[in-house]
Amino acid sequence: MSDVTEPFDAIDVIRTKRDGGAVEERALRWMVDAYTRGYVADSQMAAFAMAVLLNGMERDEIRVLTDAMIASGERMSFRALGKRTVDKHSTGGVGDKITLPLAPLVAAFGVAVPQLSGRGLGHTGGTLDKLESIPGWRADLSNEELFAQLAEVGAVICAAGAGLAPADKKLYALRDVTGTVEAIPLIASSIMSKKIAEGTDALVLDVKFGGGAFMTDIDDARELARTMVALGTDSGVATTALLTDMNTPLGLAIGNANEVRESVEVLAGGGPSDVVELTVALAREMLALAGQPDADVEAALRDGRAMDTWRAMIRAQDGDPDAPMPAPRETHTVTADRDGVLAEQQALPFGIAAWRLGAGRARAQDPVQHAAGIDLHAKPGDRVTAGQPLFTLLADEPSRFERALAALDGAWRIADADTAAASGPLIRERITG
Ligand code: URA
Prior knowledge:
This protein has about 425 residues and is an alpha/beta fold. It has three domains: about 5-55, Transferase, Pyrimidine Nucleoside Phosphorylase, Chain C (Transferase, Pyrimidine Nucleoside Phosphorylase, Chain A, domain 3); about 80-325, Nucleoside phosphorylase/phosphoribosyltransferase catalytic domain (Pyrimidine Nucleoside Phosphorylase, Chain A, domain 2), CATH 3.40.1030; about 330-415, Aldehyde Oxidoreductase, domain 3 (Alpha-Beta Complex). It is built from 16 helices and 13 strands. Strands 1-4-5-13 form a four-stranded mixed beta sheet, with helices on both faces. Strands 6-9-11-7 form a four-stranded antiparallel beta sheet. Strand 4, helix 10 (about 220-235) and strand 5 form a beta-alpha-beta unit. Helix 4 crosses helix 9 (about 185-200), helix 4 crosses helix 10 and helix 5 (about 100-105) crosses helix 14 (about 305-315). The radius of gyration is 22 Å and the shape is globular. The structure holds uracil (URA).
């Protein structure tokens, strides 16, 4: 029954979307607000989300939805800093530790990088989980601490406060249990509401496609990227997106402590070539949006400036950049059963295996085991010989190996050297506003 004190009725809004229509602005704003304050029920919002998944939304509806989610919480501003602020968001992948070297690298050029991040759920790892393997490091900062660190160090990676877009928090939890996560208008508005509310001047999006990504299909990833770039641009946030391949894990480390170690290698001027390539490409995009299109990004990795900023960033959050990292209690190495070329290494099974080893969590309240994960010893395209180590599973409990190995059944393939197909480039497309 409708309430005469409410200006709209959730059933009408649901019916409009169910029948393929566009919901008018005031009704959509009301729906989000009424859901946030508990007047619109979870069952009604779930029906609406399913109608959006099936029938989509017009560009203007997505803008209004995003705006309504921003309006549900606080809006931050970094104006008082007197520096340009640039943020990066990745839609998530396996071995994706890029934020760790990227934030200090960009900050080394005098740009402020407020990287408000989350913890991982499922097979894609969380940036905060990785950093929490550094002894003493603290993810939760007050707004005052965040500002002070941005002013002094330039880079901050910390937990996003609960005050940003609370409507999204509620809706995302509902989508998670109602099969409606995959709707492009809902993903785009969810990500962009938090980024716009955070108050960054500019944003670079790493939108992943492939077996280990949210969007397996490149066309869907492109549509998501275009939708998010349009939302950012319409809100005055200069936004660029790169479409990147997530069929194969990024780098050689999947987990938490081992991903920090690999990030430090990149900051020291080394590291796996794919991690370096993506870090440098994203840094160039961020610096171009901050008004420094000619910045020599590689030089800052070579000469230690990015490393100095990393060390200052870790110390500012009570971490010890020189402390020994957690080590796994148990390891299990898998070797090549023949000579040839590693032709395939599928990101999703490797992500699931790392998760089963204890590197990720199944429920938001679960702890992660910081030393757990997988170290890869070969990448697709590498020649291997029989008996050569392909990868090592890392865990605190040996009982975890069996289920991790089950996830990896059929996940890699060795082919004759002359039959292995070359994979495409890591960075496929660039999308600008
Ligand atoms: N990340 C988000 O923040 N929201 C989504 O809907 C998907 C990924």
